[in-house]
């Protein structure tokens, strides 16, 4: 039993699978495309919302240090992802890496985890996008009909038609092709990066030094729980701790980690990259460096413009400019946030469909979903299926309790990838590695520790829900995946026992 549960799929076989005509994705992405994808998915709700929340409830002006701490945790994981993505350039990200190093059951677990992470992430961001659009429409004198707007806080039946429509439109774009997706993403990313740069440059002239005192608050000067009442924060996390001091910075880091979710999605596009050995490390690490720098600068500027105790929770960037007498910038920021969330939603959906596609190609999910479109060379079947399901999920909100699973799912993937790097170095030292994670096993071990530390800071309820989802995953695997996998049926190369 144990030998079948931990049978590994040879890297060579994974690469051969990508050459099968019916299951091969089109290679069209460059290092620039990957970097744009990374920036596109990372810069989103996190930077436009979380700055005010963690500054008010945890770290004050030291929010910049929280972004640095979260960025360091992601950087450690990024180095591990870069080695795997360049060595095993196959769709599926952490799922594929796990199959090559840890074995079939761990691969299934991480794939099942990623399907949930990306689905909830897509739905949550779509709902957030809908809220921004409705706000802009209301400013223009338009109001959504009752029952067709946001469901957060509603006590009657309704359907968020804007959130569902966004997911369906993005589904069509992803079916048509990756290059089209990359072009649309490039345009939208240019808009939202411009918005972030405007915040940094314009806000720098409005900084008052007194707002940085104290830089690391020792206690909370506002009414306890004031920002916990924010529907958007509850929608994303279902919680927001309120301790201050040095520990408040680390607690804040576990919250702002949401702002970095998505850089690992770049790895899911490895199979569709022209030169993955060279471009995957550049895309993953480059996008993370760019976004971390922007996050730190934005948090420094915003907490300098307005005292952290007075920052708003739902729209801290826009409201900080309003408070300093510059309402025009507030409207500009709201527009940029709405546009920017579009790419976040699309790339999360892209990541989920690629993981689902890779699992079906290996037989762990029905092989029906492993065929690509004859013209567009995209995994159209899982894209359409998941797009419709997520559109329904996004429409019937609120998702307050479920959304907290997004963070723990990502961190769990980080842990698995880091362990996988160590194992594959020992089991397959002969593999050509165009990028090698430095200081192995030190960096992967630090990555595991950093991820586990952030996971510990998540609430117990999140762990319970995560365990339930994993239990369902085990059931599906033992009832279907274990006997239908290609390794079990002898359709792939003979398995190699994992280390």
Number of helices: 19
Report the count of strand segments.
Answer: 2
Global outline: globular
Biggest sheet record: 2 strands, antiparallel
Strand order of the largest sheet: 1-2
Low-confidence stretches: 151-155, 221-241, 492-499
Name the beta content range: under 5%
Helix coverage percent: 55-70%
| Structural class by SSE content | mainly alpha
State the separation between the terminal residues, measured CA to CA: 16 Å
Radius of gyration: 22 Å
Elements, N to C (H/E): HEHHHHHHHHHHHHHHHHHHE
Mean pLDDT: 82
Describe the structure using short key phrases:
499 residues, globular, disordered C terminus
Describe this structure in words.
By secondary structure, the protein is mainly alpha-helical. It is built from 19 helices and two strands. It has helices at 2-5, 11-17, 31-42, 45-59, 63-87, 94-101, 104-139, 161-176, 178-204, 231-236, 245-256, 276-305, 316-323, 327-361, 380-395, 405-427, 442-456, 460-484, 486-489, and strands spanning 7-8, 496-497. Strands 1-2 form a two-stranded antiparallel sheet.
Gist of the model:
The chain has 499 residues and is mainly α.
Secondary-structure map with pairings?
Layout: H1 2-5, E1 7-8, H2 11-17, H3 31-42, H4 45-59, H5 63-87, H6 94-101, H7 104-139, H8 161-176, H9 178-204, H10 231-236, H11 245-256, H12 276-305, H13 316-323, H14 327-361, H15 380-395, H16 405-427, H17 442-456, H18 460-484, H19 486-489, E2 496-497
